[in-house]
Write a structure and sequence with these properties.
Strand content: 5-15%
CATH class of one domain: Mainly Beta
Order of helices and strands: EEHEEEEHEEHEHHH
Radius of gyration: 55 Å
Number of helices: 6
Helix content: 25-40%
Structural class: alpha+beta
Mean pLDDT: 77
Strand order of the largest sheet: 3-4-5-8-7
CATH architecture of one domain: Beta Barrel
Largest sheet: 5 strands, mixed, barrel
Distance between the termini: 176 Å
Low-confidence stretches: 11-18, 292-308
Number of strands: 9
């Protein structure tokens, strides 16, 4: 007897109810019908283990997270490197530099305003003098000349003079060198400074001023006294200014020509009034003749002639 693939066997029946034996059931698995295998299929393929899948997924997440973290670290490092590079390459403060480059913002007879990097500062003209003996002629000429020689926006190189009173050991005075047309100003100054050029034109004097009046200390002695107060590395620039000033004075150039013309007229007036020594109240003063009331300078008719009070007096 077969029931759902299970065979049931009974023992041989014997006569009589009492001789009945229990039924012995034998369960045997019958061979099930094999399912057909798809063409080209792999009969050994097994279903992936879920634990292995989860483990691989977790490893992928970890690797991806490490990659993102590394990218963030690299980005921060690059940002830090860029910031450090920006900091280290920023231009230094021109106030602490003996030589620096800048563009011209404004020009006056006393100083020049420059833009250097992010800082704007003023530098006074070193060794220029528009006062003193010829100040009447130099004062209006020096500013117009400087503005014509140094246009707004021009690139210049500034060479500062030393001064022990400042923290950087530099003064607020400098020599200005304008870059040649079509070139850029560099930390190495080129050409003749504007300071020397305007002195050579005769439109500025030098500082300390050279006293050129009659009876003054000889010019050479004045120059040597001034050189003793100037650092050795700046003597060449000062000597060039002295030579330019001497040439402009002797050649009667620029505003110095006007100054010398005025001085010559004043000298002639002094000689006419006070004699060759140009001093009032001395024996060489010319006589003063005051005509009488009647107009007769001989003294007849009213006591005319030279007054004793006015004799030897320059104001008569």
């Amino acid at each position: 007897m077969t029931m759902d693939g299970v065979k049931m066997q009974r023992g041989a029946p014997k006569s009589g109810w009492g001789n009945h034996k229990p039924v012995r059931l034998v369960f045997e698995r019958t061979t099930q019908q094999q399912r057909p295998t798809p063409t080209g299929g792999n009969t050994d393929k097994k279903k992936p283990d879920r634990t292995l899948v989860v483990l691989c997924w977790m490893i992928g997440v970890i690797v991806l997270g490490c990659g993102l973290l590394g990218a963030l670290v690299d980005s921060d490092s690059n940002d830090a490197g860029t910031l450090q590079a920006t900091t280290t390459t920023s231009p230094p403060d021109p106030r602490t530099l003996p030589v620096f480059v800048g563009s011209v913002v404004a020009v006056s007879r006393t100083d020049i305003t420059l833009q250097s990097g992010t800082r704007q500062l003023k530098v006074k003209w070193a060794r220029l003098n528009h006062g003193g003996l010829c100040g009447r002629e130099l004062y209006p000429a020096v500013e117009a000349s400087l503005q014509a020689m140094v246009p707004i926006g021009a690139l210049v190189t500034v060479v500062r003079e030393p001064a022990g009173s400042t923290p950087a050991g530099l003064s607020e005075y400098g020599y200005i060198h304008v870059a040649e047309p079509g070139t850029q100003a560099t930390m190495q100054p080129v050409g003749v400074s504007i300071n020397e050029q305007i002195v050579a034109q005769g439109n500025s004097s030098i500082q300390p001023e050279i006293d050129r009046r009659d009876g003054a200390v000889p010019v050479a002695a004045q120059v040597e006294a001034a050189r003793a107060e100037i650092p050795a590395e700046y003597l060449a620039a000062f000597d060039a200014l002295v030579s330019a000033n001497n040439a402009a004075w002797d050649g009667r150039l620029g505003a110095l020509a006007l100054c010398r013309d005025r001085l010559d007229r004043e000298k002639a007036d002094r000689i006419r009034w006070w004699g060759l020594d140009e001093k009032p109240g001395t024996d060489d003063d010319p006589s003063r003749h005051v005509p009488s009331i009647s107009g007769d300078s001989s003294g007849n008719g009213g006591g005319g002639g030279e007054s004793r009070f006015c004799r030897k007096r320059w104001w008569c």
